[in-house]
Queue: 2 jobs
Job 1
Amino acid sequence: MKILRTTSVLAALAASLSFGTTFASAGEVVWWTPNFNEARARELVAQFQEANPDITVRLEITVTDGLPQRILTALQSGAAPDIIDVQHGWVNGYAQNNLVIPLDDVVEEGRDDYVPAALDYVSWNDQVWGVPYRIETHAIIYNRGHFEDAGLDPDAVPETWDELVETATALTGNGRSGFAITGGGEVGNTIFRSLPFIWMNGGSIVSDDLTRATVNEPEAVEAVKFYTDFFTNGLSPASTLENDGTANRRLFIAETVSMYQSGQFDVPSIAAENANIDIGVMTIPHPEGAETAAILGGWSFVVPRDARNPDEAKVFLEFLQQPENMGMFTDTFPARTSAMDLPRFDDPILQVFKEMLPYGRPVPIHPNWVQITQAYFDGIQRILLGEDVQAAMDDAADEIQALLDS
Amino acid sequence: MVRQSTGLLFVLPALVVLAMLIAYPVFYTGLLSVTDQQGAFVGTNNFAAVLGARATPQAFWNTLWWVGGSIVFQVILGVATAVLLNQNFPGRGIVRSVTLIPWVIPGIVAATTWAWMFHTEFGIINYMMTAPGLIEAPIGWLSNRDTVLPVMIAINVWKLFPFVAIMVLAGLQSIPNDLYEAARVDGANFWHEVWHIMLPQVRPVIVAVTLLLVIWGLNSITIIYAITRGGPANLTLITPIQIFRLAFESFQFNQAAALSVIFFAVTIVVVFIYIRYLASSPAEAK
């Protein structure tokens, strides 16, 4: 997360040019939120202003493409806004580099109400450095009609790995692929979909203390083999090596894929583009006798160390974290349990995604994580190209070990 | 003397700007390559790290194949097209303009379109081959070990051969007609003309264009990055993409700088050898 000094000088220059308006005047809170939140953010700001006329909240809308770089630039430039929406996984890096301030006083009131994994994600050194507001995990989206075509009961979904393979095998044929995995696109797609299988099998990519590469140990190798075998055995589309999450959704919409992993955000676009599909959702199957797992994703608010008006920002955060506001603001699920009771989360299609939440885990936090996942992903692609699983993971482990040691 | 120093004064602003925009970044890249993220001197650590990475030798070989393969076909196809377009036939102007289209299309647009055309499931190329029964199952053009780099090279050839064609065509048109007439008097046929008049006359053009193609090949990122991002499993990873990844995806600016320095050195050697042995021949001298 440390970036060259010069880069930050350039960054400061760029920031002062492009975000010259970021400098807040007294009592003004500048809030960066991504474009998908804009409409709801404006509504909340209007409500807040009515109750707090002495604090002005100024919205600046960000886009997710290139957001990490833009935020890092702002955090290091000394010209930061007062509140920024960031993904949970980024918070620790900011905290360790002293770029944001602790927010224990904000979450104190509702601490027991927060989903523990979400708070863990943004904690470092026994302090909380972000206020999580949105959480989500993957589940498996499936085509109920395809189940019936294959003579399967769409309500009796597979629960174990063996059952998943059986079901996928039964669904495959006549131009349909039973279960689509990802093997292309950006690294994150395949990490999000394959790492949970390693976790539920008791394995990991790196040891908990981040000193050892563990991706070539038996539990991990078995899980990677389970994942890649869907392609090797012809249950995942021939284009798997080109496919990311979006491509799988397109194939699902085109009804050439019967099951694939994704989040609840895919459901509306499937319904909009192919109304014939009777959408089902199931929890991700686990090995016999083990529990399922998923990567916990989502967003938190942080307050930069250089924020002009941190006190006013905290007042606004207090408002945003109220269960009804958080429940209204989130695109997926809120990070507070009590907010989950709101009517909008009663939709039956969301129930399974909700059931997956307690199994969501944070990804390891390491400065070289991007390169570590790249090494692992290269290994997965070599397997999909025909290399032996153990050999590919041994090579990946060597590369990851070097990254951990450096 | 006075004149000279006045002249120097006039070009000084331009020189300063050039120094800031070219010399400083080159120098700074060198500096970055021997320091760590805090700016402390670390000797050859960054070089050791990038040379030790599994991807580096693979990217190097891929780069050689990519540049070599692209240039051979670009030049052959380009020269052949130029000779063809130099003939007299009806509609020549239209054909000349149409030939230029691939070169005019923005790289990212072309790359994305080709990616879709080569896609295993939705791609029109597999559709055209499976529908009449040429092949039984769709081919994973972009996901097969043996096809993915050749496909990238083919796209690059398609993109740049019109440039070669138009440059060589310009050269062909400057050949005086007397040469052809003299040859015909001596009983030369078309192939004799190509071999003994056209090619020797446009040789300097071909040499210059090839040098440009080498440079463009060595620093091209767009086509490969937009289609495969260097994947699958680094099969299409070329060194410029590796540098880009190190710097802008992993934020390892120092290692990226080290790799750039190595790449720069190798490129200089290649270009030097090329100019020394291929460009400076008697034909060129005149």
Job 2
Amino acid sequence: MRFGHMLASVALGFATLASTGAKAVEIEYWQYVFDTRVKAMNQLITKFQEANPDIKVKQTTFPYADYQTKVAAAILAGQGPDVVQLFYGWTDNFIAGKMIRPLRAEAFPSAEIERDFFPIVSAMKRGNDYYGLPTAVRSLALFYNKKAFKDAGLDPNNPPKTIDELVAAAEKTVKRDGSGNIVSAGMTLDMGGQDHQWWREVLIRQFGGVPYTENDTKVGYNDEAGLKALTFYTDLQKKLKVGQAGFMDEGQAAFRAGLAAMTIDGTFRLGSFGTIKAFEWGVTELPANAQGVRSNYASYFANAITTKAEGEKLAAAEKFLKYVSSPEAMKVWLEVVGELPARRTAALTPENISHPIYGPFLKGLEYSHTTLFKDEAAQRQVAIDMANRVLIGGEDPRTSLAKAAEAEQAIIDRAKR
Amino acid sequence: MSAVAHREAARGGLWSRRSLGQKQVIWAWSFLAVPLVFYVVIRFWPTFQAFYLSVTDWTITKPAAFVGLENYGRLLGDPLFWQVFRNTFLYLILGTPISLLISFVVAYYLDRVRFMHSFIRALYFLPFLTTAAAMAWVWRWFYQPVPIGVINDVLSSLGIPQQPFLRSTTQALPAVLAPAVWAGLGFQIIIFLAGLRAIPVTYYEAARIDGLPEGAILRKITLPLLKPTLVFLVVFSSIGFLRIFDQVYNINTNDPGGPLNSTKPLVLMIYQTAFSSYEMGYAAAQTVVLFVILLVISLVQLRLMRDR
């Protein structure tokens, strides 16, 4: 009797397995390994599969370092994902390699995308087509050490609002030893971190220039505004001596260790700074210039549908992409990963805006820019070298700026071929 | 076993007619074939492919198109290449003699030490066992400015101004080279010790009976008889310094090869061109150049130091 029961249940199990196995469409989703991102995606997949029992989503992850190479190799070999996560800056590469397909306008109308998402989503648009949609976006803000502010006699609840106030606060909080060596920085200087984004999309604009023209295909900063922006940046070390490139190895390390009063960093740093126990820190919008002009740099990973997805898999992939870029998914992403929703309505809730940490980042999204990098690592290197020529080599900022503009233009031109 | 028996039966007299010597040769070759095939497929085939890729503009995502010698032309006109070329040879020209001199001196005297000989030898060998990446990170910390940099902390406590080390275009390369030399010492010392031990004691005894001074013994007996060891170590360490990568990459991960490319070796340039910019064709051309350099230097060294 008991045996009969067991047999029956096993048979039933096989039957259901076989029937769902036959009906369900399985699609593959790829992203790089990052603990909270994988966790958030697992939650989204579970919810999506509950609502769509006929679709199964398989998530594959691997280290960030090999990500682009592996995705490219897999798709070109006819394997790999149906829905793939990519950095917005890789879009040109992925399109050129025929790895991702444009989103069908019937499923994802452009007008709706432009109405609902923050304007930076335009970095996924080529011609009239969108090639992917983000779940979450990242922006920059000024992190400040409240304890250092208090110790220097500054109001820890009134962080700098303008560039002049930033400089004044840095001068007050910097600490030097008897020989003039910095032992605690007022402001971190780290072009290899986020400073190159700050310089490119924020400082240049605040000094009256534009970093690029003609859809980011022409370098536009080799002028007076660019020069002022670079001089301002390098003077923080050379003249004002409130910070020093290479101090504590990295800007974020200096801030973490409590040895820097201020640093500019992105939403992705919240997880790491969240574990600081030695002091209290705060976040504020990137400082405005004297005329009140603000800017910010935003970036994101988007999800796109690959050329591998066809027929019913394509339909399933579209459904999945719609779900992971829905307000509901964005809420999960914010809670689990700490990245900001890419849709205006999901992001700009009263609760989020008044949030002491998310608030400043969200306000930044309204006026942020997204650089259309051709080769992010190489373009970042140009900025690092530009600052180093002035800081280490003692080169005239004007000459260094001209060299940087020429080198970056060459990178952009080469990518166009 | 059965497969062998089957084959023997099938080929009938062919196998049994072979002499024992021939059979041994066939067996030897069938065993040698395994690593040989492996080498051809895993090493030589990709090498030939690299030669082919160097005349294309392959970028992983775009299919490869033949571009002739364009990549080589671009390389010759690229100021970064010449800087990197200079750096690579600086690593070689500084690294090889310095490391050989230090390791020879250590081995020469260690050879005479009886007290705790094995222990001291083990101490010198330890860095060689350490992962280059881990070592580079520790040294990176040594070189930091105050308040965390060990060397600068000592300097400034003595009233000496702190040094930029990795943040200087002139000091960075020697600063990166130091841990690389240090890490290689253990291996070179062991090889030198083996070489010293291989010299027959009778030569020394004869020299001492004839009253030759120690300096002359070193010049007339030790060094000439160490020549094979020396040739091996020079070639081996030259290739090592020409291919230097992990120390450089890990000691300055935020700006690998920096500042201002002053520590960037050719291998790092190849890596960045291939796996950061995805310009595989251009990277392959750089690889071919590195291959030629390694080949020429090895051949020249072997010829110069060959026994006449």
